[in-house]
Structure formats: structure tokens, C-alpha cells
Inverse folding.
């Protein structure tokens, strides 16, 4: 009984301590959020001079390093974008300096992202029933949608898969074994017609 009471006090004081120091810590730490393909600079973006790229670079690097516009599928970007706007709303108290785009700028950024995103594999695609698809979902979908194999030539896929594996490593995730890697490349590069 006494022990339980002590535990309760400890939990409450930890919670209290966290919440009172949260705003400052959040503010300082948010810049450190890790997005794979670290350290992209504005001039490395596709069409760096375009309006969309310029807006994307200025609004989307305020809280973390600039993500690649190729990191999500065309279908997923609008939802991801809205999630970021929600973050900005939530943080408004702790970080009043965060700028949010005007409606016209929002449209510009979303269409820039949609244009540069990859094509995802539809949820009802029969390819999802192929035995190797499980590993593709397992190793790829922690970061983004499963890509449609049809959009890159076979020889591109092994390079892409190795690049993705290096991001897994950087994030401290389990790397693909040699046979997982082969199976995934086989699924993506297979001639189906
Ligand atoms: C107000 C701060 C803030 C701004 C501004 C912001 N982000 Fe984020 N972003 C976050 C936070 C917090 C996370 C980590 C939590 C999460 O994944 O939602 C994150 C994570 C991400 C990730 C990695 C997770 C994922 O969904 O793949 C991507 C990509 C990303 N942001 C893209 C963007 C883009 C594009 C913009 C510009 C439209 C943007 N961010 C602007 C706060 C922000
Ligand atoms: C740790 C996060 C992460 C994982 C896991 C991951 N990706 Fe990616 N993916 C990214 C990032 C970041 C980008 C954008 C930068 C780039 O293309 O290098 C990207 C971009 C892509 C693109 C678009 C490339 C282009 O040039 O348009 C494809 C296709 C892709 N990934 C396929 C895969 C496949 C297949 C897997 C599983 C084997 C996978 N990804 C796993 C983070 C990840």
C-alpha cells in the first residue's frame, strides 16, 4: 500500500516535471527531427527556381531539415501536408515564430509535391498477392507508400533499393538481408507482361 503510494507520487511528479518543461524542450529539439536523405539544400530540389520549390524550401525547413519532395507518393502528399499544417497549429503557442503559408501558397506547395512524388501501388493491385510483396510492405512502408514497380526501369530498382537500405541504416532500423534484398528487387524489376 505504502509502496503504491510512493509510486503514484513518483509518476505524478515526473508527469508534472515533463509538462512544465515541455514547451522549451520541444522548441529546442524539434529542429533535430530526423528525416531520411538528410541535409537536402534548396538548390538540390527538382526545378529549384520554380515557385513551388521556393515556397516548399522556405516553409518546410522551419521545424526540421528539408525533406525530399520525392519521399512520398503523389496520392499521399496532400494528407502529409495537412498533417504538417496541424503541427504548426499545435505548436503556435510554443513557437509563435513559425510561418504558415497563405491559401494560394498552400496550393502551390501541394501541387509541387504531387508533381514530384512517386506513383504508389493501388491497394487492390493483384501484385500485392505475390509472395515477395510481403517483404516490400515490411521493409518499405515504414517511411512511405509501396511504389508501383512499373514506373522505373529494372536497372534503376537495385540502385533505389540500396539507397533505401542506407536510409534504414541511418535511422537505426534493421537492414535487409541479402535474400530479402534480392526478393524485393526481383518483385520491383520483374517483367510482368
Ligand atoms: C510546425 C513545424 C513543422 C513544419 C512547419 C513542417 N513540419 Fe514536417 N514534421 C514536423 C514534425 C513534428 C514531424 C515529426 C512527426 C510526424 O512525422 O508527423 C515532421 C515530420 C515530417 C516528415 C517525416 C514524416 C513523414 O510524414 O514522412 C516529412 C516528410 C515532413 N515533415 C514534411 C514536411 C513538409 C513537406 C512541410 C512543409 C509543408 C513540413 N514538413 C513542415 C513538424 C513540421
Ligand atoms: C527509412 C525511410 C525509407 C524507407 C524504409 C524506404 N524509403 Fe523510399 N524513400 C525515402 C526517402 C527519404 C525518399 C526520397 C529521397 C530519395 O529518393 O533518395 C524515398 C524515395 C523513394 C522513391 C522515389 C525515388 C525517385 O527517384 O523518385 C521510391 C521509388 C522509393 N523510395 C522506393 C522504396 C522502396 C522500394 C523501399 C523498400 C525497399 C523504400 N523506398 C524504403 C525513404 C525511405
Amino acid at each position: 500500500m505504502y509502496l503504491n503510494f510512493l509510486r503514484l507520487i513518483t509518476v505524478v511528479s515526473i508527469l508534472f516535471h515533463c509538462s512544465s518543461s515541455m514547451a522549451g524542450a520541444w522548441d529546442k529539439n524539434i529542429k533535430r527531427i530526423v528525416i531520411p536523405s538528410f541535409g537536402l539544400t534548396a538548390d538540390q530540389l527538382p526545378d529549384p527556381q520554380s515557385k513551388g520549390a521556393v515556397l516548399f524550401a522556405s516553409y518546410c525547413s522551419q521545424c526540421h531539415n528539408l525533406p525530399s519532395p520525392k519521399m512520398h507518393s503523389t496520392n499521399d502528399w496532400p494528407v502529409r501536408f495537412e498533417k504538417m499544417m496541424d503541427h504548426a497549429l499545435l505548436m503556435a503557442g510554443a513557437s509563435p515564430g513559425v510561418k504558415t503559408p497563405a491559401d494560394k501558397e498552400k496550393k502551390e506547395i501541394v501541387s509541387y509535391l504531387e508533381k514530384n512524388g512517386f506513383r504508389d501501388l493501388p491497394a487492390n493491385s493483384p501484385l500485392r498477392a505475390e509472395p515477395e510483396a510481403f517483404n516490400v510492405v515490411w521493409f518499405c512502408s515504414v517511411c512511405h507508400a509501396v511504389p508501383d514497380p512499373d514506373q522505373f526501369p529494372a536497372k534503376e530498382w537495385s540502385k533505389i533499393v540500396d539507397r533505401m537500405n542506407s536510409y534504414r541504416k541511418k535511422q537505426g532500423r534493421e537492414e535487409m538481408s541479402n535474400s530479402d534484398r534480392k526478393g524485393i528487387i526481383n518483385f520491383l524489376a520483374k517483367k510482368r507482361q
In short: Confidence is low (pLDDT under 50) at residues 8-26. The chain is about 55% helix and 0% strand. Residues 33, 35, 59-60, 62-64, 67, 71, 80-81, 83-84, 87-88, 91, 98, 109 surround heme C (ligand 1) (CB under 6 Å).
